[in-house]
């Protein structure tokens, strides 16, 4: 029973006004938090045939440059760290990069909701360019890590959000796959770009050129979105966006609350503090006996429940809202991405280093072709998965199949990535992994987006990618921990009779040094054997982890992919009520009712 004072307030005019004001305040805050969603829905009323083609072409251009970045810059990193004699820091930088990428996604998604999709792209563009300028001019590994903090903020998540805004469920998987098509082209083109850059200009220009290319690629998309948003506003299709009242300070604070900045800082700091010791312990004084290593982990673990409590009690717009934690599709997709990325980065982090040292008969171009084989396979089979989803209007069992194939691919790698693995085995294992990953990734994204209303699409997309990227950071940290703790001992065991401690340290710190020794020398043979044994351990751990996503996929709901923006609201892309069915069960009911109506006269007769 409610307290008497509350009942009295509710029965008085004063109490009713208070309730009204509270409701109005909540509505106002929701308007502020979802202004970007309302704007993008309004653009569907001004986009016509040619303007929508302009949107998708500009989105494709953005996707192309993002692809070119993704297929080239990662390759320069191992040479950048080697040039600075810090090759073993590769995993540490990878952990930092993935956590910034992960934590940047919710912020960018929130910005796109609070302001607009166009302003979010503009924010990404500014940070992207600044980050690459810093990396290109970096004198130390620390400066490279600093540049990564700026550039790794969220172009991928914005592309995914725009595709979700502009496509119905039945088309979304296919369009998402087609937007990855540039990876097929760049999978071959990037190899020549990488080699040409490294031979003629150096790795710094490999990063720096994107400070020029990215603005040229993204500005057309930003201008298209700005045009559509302004035209929709001019024509009265976009409702007026309310602004939080108060002083400038209160408005800034309201914006910070809407972005859930403190929640993201808490989560990012906690995960980084837990993971970094795995990659730093081998280089720290006294290793795991160093009190600083233990303190970082303890503080990180303590911060996790603090983050959860903050999300539950204090955050007005949490990055992990409780409704997501009750949604099996969201939790399933996030869990699948989390464990799949742990497994993937266990296999990926030191693969290029392994190939560079072991496959001495491969030219740099061929090494790059190999590295991009899995990306190409991911793209081709991602498009295939999207087409199958368009035909069948379902995704669950396609996802289960893909994850099973993914596991098989990791198992094949255990053999293929040994010192005795053949070239054909290496390539085939990459293709198998790409087939399974292409099917699983598209299905997870569509399944999660289908399970929430449009106002949650940006947040849920960022949430799933956040958890997935955290998995990638954990996988990279584990790989780095295994590598830094086992590789020095392996090199010492196999090279001890043939090289002194200074030479062994040089081989461990720089892959170019390892590759200088002749193939028939005992030093080179020892290096290859050490790489072989450590890589096998990484792959066995990856295979064990790859089993978990299969079980999670069986828990996913199997939504019908129809002509709506999602599977829980009966709404079109413009936010209007749809005259179509959300699920084919409704179609089956109508069909049965029609059949009963046909036979009913016969029964009466």
From TrEMBL:
Top-level division of the source organism's lineage: Eukaryota
Signal sequence extent: none
Gene Ontology MF terms in the entry: transmembrane transporter activity
Keyword presence, Transmembrane helix: yes
Residues that span the membrane, as ranges: 53-77, 89-107, 119-138, 144-162, 174-193, 205-228, 252-276, 288-310, 330-357, 369-390, 460-483, 537-561
Skewed-composition ranges (Basic and acidic residues): 583-605
InterPro entries xref list: MFS_trans_sf
Keyword list, A-Z: Ion transport, Membrane, Transmembrane, Transmembrane helix, Transport
Membrane topology, as annotated: Multi-pass membrane protein
GO cellular component: plasma membrane
Region (Disordered): 579-605
Keyword Transport in annotation: yes
Single GO biological process annotation from the record: monoatomic ion transport
Family assignment from sequence similarity: Belongs to the major facilitator superfamily.
Name used for this protein in its record: Drug:h+ antiporter
Lineage: Eukaryota, Fungi, Dikarya, Basidiomycota, Agaricomycotina
